[in-house]
Design a protein that fits this description.
0% strand; 66 residues; single chain; mainly alpha
Length: 66
């Protein structure tokens, strides 16, 4: 018996429901969009910091053996 299963996984900023946040805080649609963009920019900054940290770790690892 075969079954096909589809799994939609969200992580990070994709998990937030900005419509719910806007309704709870009584924000205008433009304010909700600005909040979403602010969170997106914070996520990008965090991703770059993580990539920089990984790059440093890889550089240190490579430097130890040469």
């Amino acid at each position: 018996m075969e079954q096909e299963v589809a799994l939609d996984v969200k992580k990070g900023i994709e998990t937030k429901s900005y419509e719910g946040i806007g309704e709870a805080a009584k924000l205008k649609p433009l304010e909700v969009d600005l909040k979403r963009l602010e969170d997106l920019s914070d996520a990008i900054v965090q991703d770059f910091a993580l990539m920089r940290k990984r790059e440093e770790e890889m550089r240190d690892t490579n430097g130890k053996y040469f």
